[in-house]
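4.2 Preliminary Data

To establish feasibility before requesting continued support, the project team ran the inverse folding procedure on a target of 177 residues. The structure was first converted into the token representation described in Section 3, and no sequence information of any kind was made available to the design step. The complete token record follows.
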């Protein structure tokens, strides 16, 4: 079965995973240029470029104050980057997932198409699923819910928002119970 451009879904997914490795290496380079110690771990083994994902090693890097960048999704086709990010967050016992987007939170409908869309300050995982809001795919939201892992959705393009979110300041929408 062919997907876009005649490429089958499995091949396209693997190509996407490899693209995340390229992006992760670029992010690593930018962060290290700023003096931030980083490690890239991938779900697809490529030892000459990055470490393989090993949960305990990732946690140890974090304990040593390093930033760990996870690449190549889950290493399996048919899983989104949202599900992979949630899976890794659960595995390393993260306190929260931050999802940077082009809008300033979760809305009852697409705010780009609907100027009267209403933004939620807080919304439950169940409401996100029941209202079919396109925050993350349903597997990722369910994984967050099942592990009581809160999600903060915010606008990446607004200057200072990353720092605000990391410092725990109210930005965007909190998805949780």
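Position-by-position output of the design step:
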């Amino acid at each position: 079965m062919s997907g876009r451009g005649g490429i089958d879904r499995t091949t396209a997914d693997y190509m996407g995973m490899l693209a995340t490795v390229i992006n992760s290496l670029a992010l690593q380079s930018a962060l290290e240029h700023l003096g931030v110690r980083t490690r890239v771990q991938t779900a697809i083994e490529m030892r000459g470029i990055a470490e393989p994902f090993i949960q305990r090693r990732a946690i140890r890097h974090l304990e040593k104050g390093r930033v760990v960048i996870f690449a190549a999704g889950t290493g399996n086709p048919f899983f989104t980057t949202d599900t992979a990010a949630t899976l890794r967050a659960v595995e390393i016992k993260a306190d929260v997932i931050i999802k940077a987007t082009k809008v300033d939170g979760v809305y009852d409908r697409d705010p780009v198409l609907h100027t009267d869309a209403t933004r939620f300050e807080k919304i439950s995982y169940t409401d996100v699923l029941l209202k079919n809001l396109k925050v993350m795919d349903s597997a990722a939201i369910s994984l967050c819910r099942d592990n009581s892992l809160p999600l903060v959705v915010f606008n990446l393009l607004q200057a200072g928002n990353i720092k605000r979110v990391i410092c725990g300041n109210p930005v965007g929408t909190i998805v949780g119970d």
